[in-house]
Design goal:
The protein has about 600 residues and is of the alpha+beta class. It contains nine helices and 30 strands. The longest helix is centred in the last third of the chain and has 29 residues. Keywords: Membrane, Signal, Transmembrane, Transmembrane helix.
C-alpha cells in the first residue's frame, strides 16, 4: 500500500513538472534571423527576416555592411487561437542587394520585449560572381524587376537655347502583374531649365512594346523644359516606389492563382541633352532672346483726339515659343506726350509642344498740346529654330493728330520768330527814387526766463513723479500675483494651440482634426517628442513618468478618444464647444505640472 501511494505521488509530481515545463516553454521568448539563401550571386537579392513570437519595441536592425537595402523594413503580424492556445508572430523583412563579392557577416539585430533586450545570432553570407538563371525558378522580386520599367522620353536631344523640350515619363507594366499603387521618392529639380508641368488628369493604360515585348504603359508625368544654358545639361531622374501584385505558382481552394504583393523602386535614369547656343552670325542688335515663331504688331485705340484725352497703344506678340522668357520692345514716342507705365497681359497655354498664346503691353498716352505726333515703326527680332535663322519684324508707323487744345511753347516761339520785330516804347515814369523815410521802430525781444513756458517746463517733472510711483506700484502688484500670471499664461498657451480648432467650430471633421493636432503639438512642444507616432498607452506612460495627475491624464486621453470617435459618430455644436472648453482646461492643468 505504501509502495502504491509512493508511485501515485511520483506520477503527480512528474505531471506537475511537465506542465510547468510546457508553460515555461510557452512563455519563452524567441527572436531569430532567417536568410533566404546563404550563397548568392552579386546580381541576386537576399531576403532577411527578423521574427519574434512576442511583440516588442525599439527594434534596431544591423548595419547591413556591404549590402544595399532596396526594400524594407516591411512588417507582418500573425496571431491565432488554436485549442485555446494563442500563437503570435511578428516579422520585419528587408530585401538586400550585395555591393561587392566575398564572405560577409550580417550582424545582430536587437529588440526590447517585456523590459528585456534580445539579440539575433549573426550569420555569414557568401557573395559570388553574377549568376545566370534563365531557366531557374524566379522569385517574386525577379518577376517585378522584369515586369516594371520607368522610361523618360525626351522630344529633342540637341535643341537650341530656349527651345522647348518635352519630357514624358511612362511606366511600362507587363500584363502578368498588376500595379496597386505608387509614390514618388525623388522628383527632379530641372536645374538650368525653365520648367512647366502639364497635369495628367487621367492615367489610362495603353498597349505598347518595350524591348520588342508586349507591355502596357501609363503616362505618369509630362513636363516642358526651356534650357537656359548651352552645353551638356543633365535631366535628373524620376524615382518611384511601385506596389505590385505578382502571381505565384500556388493555387487557392477554387484553383485560382494566388498573388503576392511586393514593391520595387524604379528610376527613369539620367538623360543628358546637348543644348546648342544661338548663332552669332546675323544676330540683330535688338534681339532680346525670343525663340520660336511669332507675329508682331503695334496698334492704337484711336488716331484723332483732343488734348487731355487718353488713348491706348498696344504692343502685342503672339505665336509659339518662349513667350514668358523675353521682354517686349518699347515704342519710341515723342517727348511731348505723357506716357504711363505699361500694363502687362498674358494669355498663354502650355502644351506638350511648348507655350502658345500672346503677350501684350498696354501703354496709356495723354497728349497735352495740339498738333501731329508720329509713332515710328519699331523692330522685333526672334530666332526661329525650325529654319535656324533670325527673323526681324517691323510694326506700322502710326500718326496721332490732336485737334483741339493749347499750343505748346515751342510752337509759340516758332510763330514769334517768323513775325517782324517791333521796338517797345515805355510809357509813364521811367525812373523811380528810393524812399528816404523807412518808418523803422524798435525791435521787441521776448525773454524765455520768467515766462509761463519756463515755469511749466520747470514744474512738469515734479508733477510726473507721483504718476511714475503709481505705475510702478501697479506693475509690482501685477508681478506679485503669481497665480494670476500663471492662469493668464496657461490661457494664452491654450489659445495658441487651439486657435485652429476654434476657427472650425461647427465643422465637425475640420474641428476635431485641428483639435487632435493641437493636443499633439502641445505635447511635442513641451516634451520634444513626436506624439503622433505614439499610441494612447505610450502617451499615458510618458505623462505618468512626468508625475502628471491621473485625472488630468484621463482627461487628455479622453479628448484624443473623442477626436477619433468624431470621425464615425454625429457630434453637435454643444458637444464641440464642450470639448473645446475641456481641451483649454486640460492644457492649462498640464502646463502647471509639466
Amino acid at each position: 500500500m505504501k509502495r502504491l501511494r509512493g508511485n501515485i505521488l511520483l506520477f503527480l509530481a512528474m505531471v506537475f513538472l511537465s506542465g510547468s515545463m510546457v508553460h515555461a516553454q510557452d512563455d519563452e521568448v524567441t527572436f531569430t534571423m532567417n536568410l533566404s539563401k546563404e550563397k548568392l550571386g552579386i546580381n541576386e537579392r537576399l531576403r532577411v527576416d527578423f521574427t519574434m513570437n512576442k511583440d516588442g519595441d525599439n527594434f534596431t536592425p544591423p548595419a547591413f555592411e556591404n549590402f544595399k537595402v532596396v526594400m524594407g523594413p516591411s512588417q507582418s503580424i500573425s496571431s491565432s487561437w488554436i485549442n485555446g492556445k494563442r500563437t503570435f508572430s511578428k516579422t520585419y523583412t528587408y530585401i538586400l542587394l550585395p555591393t561587392a563579392r566575398g564572405n560577409f557577416t550580417i550582424q545582430q539585430a536587437t529588440i526590447e520585449i517585456a523590459g528585456e533586450t534580445y539579440k539575433t545570432t549573426p550569420k555569414t553570407v557568401e557573395v559570388t560572381a553574377a549568376v545566370d538563371r534563365p531557366n531557374g525558378e524566379k522569385t517574386v522580386d525577379d518577376v517585378a524587376d522584369e515586369s516594371l520599367h520607368l522610361v523618360a522620353e525626351v522630344s529633342k536631344d540637341n535643341p537650341y537655347l530656349n527651345e522647348a523640350v518635352t519630357v514624358v515619363y511612362k511606366l511600362y507594366v507587363s500584363p502578368d502583374i498588376s500595379v496597386t499603387n505608387y509614390r514618388p521618392l525623388d522628383n527632379p529639380t530641372y536645374n538650368n531649365f525653365w520648367s512647366q508641368d502639364i497635369p495628367v488628369t487621367k492615367h489610362t493604360a495603353q498597349n505598347g512594346t518595350y524591348e520588342g515585348k508586349p507591355f502596357r504603359y501609363v503616362v505618369l508625368k509630362r513636363v516642358v523644359l526651356y534650357p537656359q544654358k548651352s552645353g551638356q545639361l543633365e535631366i535628373e531622374p524620376l524615382s518611384l516606389e511601385i506596389f505590385v501584385d505578382v502571381p505565384t505558382n500556388r493555387r487557392d481552394f477554387f484553383g485560382g492563382r494566388i498573388y503576392t504583393q511586393t514593391s520595387k523602386t524604379v528610376s527613369a535614369g539620367n538623360r543628358t541633352i546637348n543644348v546648342k547656343p544661338l548663332p552669332e552670325a546675323g544676330k540683330p542688335v535688338d534681339f532680346s532672346g525670343a525663340v520660336g515663331d511669332f507675329e508682331f504688331s503695334v496698334t492704337t485705340s484711336k488716331d484723332q483726339l483732343n488734348a487731355s484725352e487718353s488713348l491706348q497703344a498696344k504692343v502685342e506678340i503672339s505665336g509659339k515659343g518662349n513667350l514668358k522668357l523675353f521682354q517686349l520692345p518699347k515704342p519710341e514716342l515723342p517727348s511731348s506726350l505723357e506716357v504711363y507705365d505699361p500694363e502687362h497681359e498674358e494669355d498663354i497655354n502650355t502644351y506638350s509642344t511648348g507655350m502658345e498664346g500672346k503677350v501684350v503691353d498696354n501703354y496709356t498716352i495723354v497728349p497735352s498740346f495740339r498738333g501731329k505726333y508720329p509713332i515710328p515703326s519699331i523692330p522685333f527680332s526672334y530666332f526661329n529654330p525650325a529654319t535656324g535663322k533670325y527673323v526681324t519684324l517691323h510694326s506700322d508707323e502710326i500718326n496721332i493728330e490732336v485737334m483741339e487744345g493749347p499750343v505748346s511753347s515751342a510752337d509759340n516761339l516758332a510763330t514769334g520768330s517768323s513775325t517782324n520785330k517791333q521796338l517797345v516804347v515805355p510809357t509813364g515814369k521811367q525812373f523811380h527814387f528810393l524812399k528816404l523815410n523807412p518808418n523803422l521802430g524798435p525791435l521787441k525781444i521776448s525773454c524765455f526766463f520768467g515766462s509761463k513756458a519756463f515755469y511749466m517746463w520747470l514744474f512738469l517733472p515734479l508733477l510726473l513723479i507721483p504718476l511714475a510711483i503709481l505705475v510702478f506700484k501697479k506693475r509690482e502688484a501685477m508681478a506679485s500675483d503669481v497665480i494670476g500670471n500663471k492662469i493668464k499664461q496657461a490661457n494664452r498657451l491654450a489659445k495658441k494651440y487651439l486657435s485652429a480648432a476654434k476657427r472650425d467650430l461647427g465643422n465637425k471633421e475640420a474641428f476635431y482634426v485641428a483639435l487632435e493636432k493641437g493636443l499633439h503639438n502641445y505635447l511635442k512642444a513641451k516634451l520634444n517628442i513626436e506624439t503622433t507616432e505614439f499610441s494612447k498607452e505610450k502617451i499615458t506612460g510618458i505623462l505618468k513618468g512626468k508625475q502628471v495627475d491621473q485625472e488630468d491624464i484621463q482627461g487628455f486621453i479622453g479628448l484624443l478618444t473623442s477626436c477619433e470617435m468624431a470621425r464615425y459618430s454625429p457630434y453637435t455644436q454643444v458637444q464641440m464647444q464642450n470639448d473645446y472648453d475641456k481641451a483649454s482646461e486640460v492644457i492649462s492643468k498640464l502646463d502647471k505640472q509639466l
